[in-house]
């Protein structure tokens, strides 16, 4: 699913965000990416989503070589990668339904299919019935769920999330992890970047540690039962 071989990312100002990352994540895995601020977590996620291109090395996602993909094919590639952001990036003047529907609207999906998929995605995140509420009418946790629904509405095989629990209290953070685990249980490959080491240790998920722009360590723990997930 994700294969990085000595991937380097250097910006025009000379800053090297990734200094030779080698990483393998198999289809169907759920992996947590950790590291201090500036370690390269966000950069790695941006490469996976092709928001950035690698400077050097081989980066393959969903069978696609990220260095060789023509610009005109990038939108199609991104439809296979769901992205969740810490600050939600919801359109404040659009209701929940329209926010979730946005990825389908830009691909000219039929109205009937949009309605079906949006309601299914909202059902998965526990927000069915709140389609016509505006983002400001929702709690922070609910806004994050809208962001997740939007990320999965196109049924991508890969879901990446940058600090998805960063603005949540501990109880809501565990709730978000439970939701990601549920999505992973139906076959979605999930990669989460987080600073919350306590949450990571409790989850028992495979951990990839970035330090100084390189993969410093891999830790695999036994998977405990998280409340609400079997």
Order of helices and strands: EEEHEEHEHHHEHEHEE
Oligomerization state = single chain
How many helical elements? 7
Mean of residue pLDDT values: 89
Radius of gyration over C-alpha positions, nearest whole angstrom? 17 Å
Let me know the number of strands. 10
User: Ends: how far apart?
Assistant: 25 Å
- Share of helix among residues? 25-40%
Strand count, sense and barrel status of the largest sheet are: 6 strands, mixed
Q: Strand share of the residues?
A: 25-35%
Strand order of the main beta sheet, please?
6-7-8-3-9-10
Plain-language structure description:
The protein has 230 residues and is of the alpha/beta class. It has helices spanning 41-48, 74-78, 96-105, 111-124, 140-152, 170-185, 197-203, and strands at residues 2-10, 16-25, 30-34, 56-61, 64-65, 81-85, 158-162, 189-193, 206-211, 214-219. It has a domain at 90-155. Helices cover 32% and strands 26% of the residues. The strands form two sheets. A six-stranded mixed sheet has the order 6-7-8-3-9-10, with helices on both faces. Strands 2-1-4-5 form a four-stranded antiparallel sheet, covered by helices on one side. α3 (96-105) crosses α4 (111-124). The longest helix is centred in the C-terminal third of the chain and has 16 residues, at 170-185. It is globular. The two termini are 25 Å apart.
């Amino acid at each position: 699913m994700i294969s990085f071989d000595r991937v380097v990312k250097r910006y025009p100002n000379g800053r090297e965000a990734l200094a030779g990352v080698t990483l393998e994540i198999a289809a169907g895995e759920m992996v947590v990416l950790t590291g201090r601020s500036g370690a390269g977590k966000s950069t790695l996620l941006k490469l996976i989503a092709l928001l950035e291109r690698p400077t050097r090395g081989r980066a393959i996602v969903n069978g696609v070589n990220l260095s060789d993909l023509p610009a005109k094919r990038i939108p199609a590639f991104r439809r296979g990668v769901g992205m969740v952001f810490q600050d939600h990036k919801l359109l404040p003047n659009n209701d929940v339904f329209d926010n979730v529907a946005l990825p389908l609207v830009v691909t000219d999906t039929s109205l009937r299919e949009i309605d079906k998929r949006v309601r299914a995605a909202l059902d998965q995140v526990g927000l069915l019935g709140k389609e016509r509420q505006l983002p400001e009418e929702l709690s922070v946790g609910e806004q994050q769920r809208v962001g997740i629904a939007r990320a999965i509405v196109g049924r991508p095989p890969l879901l990446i999330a940058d600090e998805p629990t960063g603005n949540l209290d501990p109880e809501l953070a565990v709730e978000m992890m439970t939701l990601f685990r549920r999505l992973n249980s139906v076959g979605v490959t999930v990669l989460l970047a987080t600073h919350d080491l306590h949450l990571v240790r409790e989850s028992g998920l495979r951990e990839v540690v970035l330090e100084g722009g390189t993969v410093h360590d891999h830790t695999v723990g036994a998977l405990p039962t998280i409340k609400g997930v079997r």
